Amino acid sequence: MSSNGKKAYVAMSGGVDSSVAALLLRDAGYDVTGVFMRCYNLDGCAERDATDARRVAAHLNIPFYVFNFEKEYKQRVVEYMVEGYKRGITPNPDVMCNKEIKFGLFLEKALSLGADYVATGHYVKLRRHSLSRTGRSSAPAAEADLRSRSRGSFGDQARESSESFSQENAGLLNLFEAKDKNKDQSYFLWTLVQDQLKHCLFPIGDYLKSEVREMARRAGLPTAEKKDSQGICFLGKVSLRDFLKKRIPAEKGKVLTTAGEKVGEHDGAGFYTIGQRHIGISNYKSRIGGRHETKPHYVAAKDVKTNTVVVAEGSDNPALYKGEVDLAHVSFINPDFPGTICPSILLGISGANWRKDVLVRVRYRQPPAEARIMSNESGIKLTFKEPQKFVAPGQSAVFYSEEGELLGGGVII
């Protein structure tokens, strides 16, 4: 099988995952170019990562370039995050980075330079796959395809995965959870649409992390033993709280219990997120309600207008749960899923009533929960079958099918 020399620009972060993505595509016969995206970075680790990416490209004997997106990244990702915290929400910069930078600017520039595809080291599967109007996946062909891939060698899987999605193939593209459920990154990709996916490759979605590392070792890649990055990428070793304190003025405010009792002070409601446990409250009372505190306290609510933080005692406190939420910026990957009425809903045309049952995650790595998406003239609402804990405005509610297909998502408001 041949890739017919299709050109693939690989986003090489300097880590092992994107290094192996480039390796697999090269071995599958693609004309591969490595690209390091220079984005906003605080602690200088970007230079080290760029050097590692360059070393891998040299090892693979592929061209290598650096795309400078520092200005755009600061405007579209960093400022988006800061403004979100100022407004009292908990934004997700990883979702915005994928939308605006990796599958926005990077994709656009790569295509303008003659690329057929862009590829990344995301742990997610790309499949051609039909979905029924009921919203339930009709997946026997995809499942058989997946089983056949799992029996093949690393090289065979790479070629099959890469070749299955050439532009000559007809049909819609769908994303599925990765084989490695501990590394799955589908949650952060819900904003992608068909016009982007037809130019995307995700070579490592059918592998476990351990398999990816083993492939890197076999190939002698310089990043084979490099540790995975943690936290928000542009912060490096800088804590989120320290970063925000330099951009959001600190202002003392009250910390209240769910009963309205003041139990301490904080230095700015915007610095906290729903579900946060390590609160760092000054003048915090060790006795609440006339008894000794025996359970940890969590942020249950906050109001930046009154600069108030409300805490609830115990992880099972009802104040930490939500039965339903409103959504904004709802997007679906497969236009067949919502049904023909959905585009009018998403365009804000009033009077339409529509509902679909899905599985949903309201935070990364949360087990999927049963829920129903409903729309009417007032907007789009997500109702959970069982109340969900630590639901934070600004975070993503991401929809899945029972088979693990990523259907889309929205922003919690």
Give an account of the 3D structure.
Residues 130-154, 160-169, 286-292 and 347-351 have low confidence and may be disordered. Strand 8 (253-257) and strand 9 (262-266) form a beta hairpin. The longest helix has 20 residues, at 93-112. This protein starts with 6 loop residues before the first strand and ends with a strand. It has 10 helices and 19 strands. By secondary structure, it is an alpha+beta fold. The chain has 3 domains: 7-235, Rossmann fold; 249-315, Adenine nucleotide alpha hydrolases-like domains (SH3 type barrels, Roll), CATH 2.30.30.280; 321-412, Beta Barrel (Elongation Factor Tu (Ef-tu), domain 3). Helix 1 (16-27) packs parallel to helix 2 (45-60), helix 1 crosses helix 8 and helix 3 (70-86) packs antiparallel against helix 4 (93-112). It has helices at 16-27, 45-60, 70-86, 93-112, 140-151, 154-163, 194-197, 209-219, 240-245, 342-346; strands at residues 7-11, 31-38, 64-68, 117-119, 124-128, 173-177, 200-201, 253-257, 262-266, 287-288, 291-292, 297-303, 308-313, 321-332, 354-361, 369-376, 379-389, 396-400, 405-412. The protein is globular.
